[in-house]
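Notes from the 1:1 (GR / supervisor)

We went over the backlog. Supervisor wanted to see one worked example end to end before approving the batch request, so GR pasted a single chain during the call. The sequence is below; no edits were made to it. Supervisor asked that the structure be written out right there so they could see what the output format looks like.
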Amino acid sequence: MAFHVEGLVAIVVFYLAILAVGIWAAWKTKNTGSEGDRSEAIIVGGRDIGLLVGGFTMTATWVGGGYINGTAEAVYVPGYGLAWAQAPIGYSLSLVLGGLFFAKPMRSKGYVTMLDPFQQLYGKRMGGLLFIPALMGEMFWAAAIFSALGATISVIIDINVNISVIVSALIATMYTLVGGLYSVAYTDVVQLFCIFLGLWISVPFAMSHPAVTDIGFTAVHPVHQAPWLGSINSLDIYTWLDNFLLLTLGGIPWQAYFQRVLSSSSATYAQVLSFLAAFGCLVMAIPAVLIGAIGASTAWNETEYGVPDPMTKKEADRILPIVLQYLCPVYISFFGLGAVSAAVMSSADSSILSASSMFARNIYQLSFRQNASDREIVWVMRITVFLFGASATAMALLASSVYGLWYLSSDLVYIIIFPQLLCVLFIKGTNTYGAIAGYLFGLVLRITGGEPYLYLQPLIYYPGCYPDENNIYTQRFPFKTLAMLTSFFTNIIVSYLAKYLFESGTLPPKLDFLDAVVARYSREHMDKATLVKSDNIVLNELAPVNPRHSLTLSSTFTNKEAFSYVDSSPELSNTEDN
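Structure output shown during the call:
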């Protein structure tokens, strides 16, 4: 394949435009708010993201390279088809459920990151444990889509995969590093427009290629392969449901989602953003579905691609760039390439910022440096943005099974973080003992279920499991949902059991080593209290506790105006004097 100078120029122009928008947004955030809340402006955009920009950035967070490429691949692969393209419906329902049940309580309590409620209720140790699967999910997701971008660019303009991945990662990391959420949000607007325009321009040209049979006919009739509408065998129903629930429920507890929720100007706006993004995800999936259908309706021996077809060559995961390359005019394929590049960057920057936000706020500040200055937190975020961006890039270049790692880590988000989030927001009485027990039970059940992508054999063989072509046993039983439910109920049962044992005197108070039941007025609970607004705290419980002398109560809360009267309270003033 010849090297395309025009394609390279188009990509360079697109990247420079994105970088320019990101730097402009960074300048905007620098001039927004006071110096004292610079870190909050970076993490949640000063909580003034409007409906238009918010809707675009939340949609673009989900509509990434994996979403577009994966949807097209699912529709194209014989035996799967549209019936197995679960991401558009699954993620849209996830956003609807997030808006209905999770956005309002999270935004109304003034949290800064998704991990704040966990540290408020369960303490900083449990917050650190939950940071691990959350970080893994964000990092492996960024690495997987960087890897997809490298493959896409190499298909169309025939440049080195490593160079394309490194340059794309540098651009995304650079504007995220200088501008935080503002840069990510405003570049998302440009990127989503590019995705929509680039893919929709490509579809008519690809559909009118002489080697392509009418997709309406091939939807239900086998021509070049099985109909692209697909079907679900009776043996695979439980696998389909397991995967669908993973996308729908497991798509909620991601910092990338809650970062947009918490940046909204009100709880109602946060809900509306979720509904707008749900609609946006469905609309943006349409061209990807059509491209997958076109790939399934093409006589590839009549194109420059030749024989065998992409499925036989094991290039089904590249069907979208292959359709752009071989069924569209050259200049149109470059538009499509810009769309895929935009999709990748719009998700990668969100993941990098999400990981650095959780580390700077929940690990560095709340666990180790409660008296850290705002300037210090900003620099920690900048350093971790660079480190996490470099790590995701390295994994994209070096890991042979980065998609397998992402599948496993996204499973852990569903199995561990989702039930914990349900408990912390909606189940009264859960505590750290139940949270740890639920965490461990869910983790063990998921790991022992095996993972074919990582060639990990299961230790527990559920009903219906069978060996694949690599002799790795694959589960048909919905063991992921079983693990999630086990984690959820274990949390509740162990929490109430611990509460009963300590409060009834069966266990002495000294055994409450996590200060989760008996020691309600410990210093750690004072640290937990600094996470939320005053309407969530009974002030007479704070009176006996000596707060840290290096900062006042109001400086650690989100809504400083609401706490102006707290610092002037005689009771608390006497406590500080002591």
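Supervisor's comment: The two ends are 77 Å apart (CA to CA).
Batch request approved.
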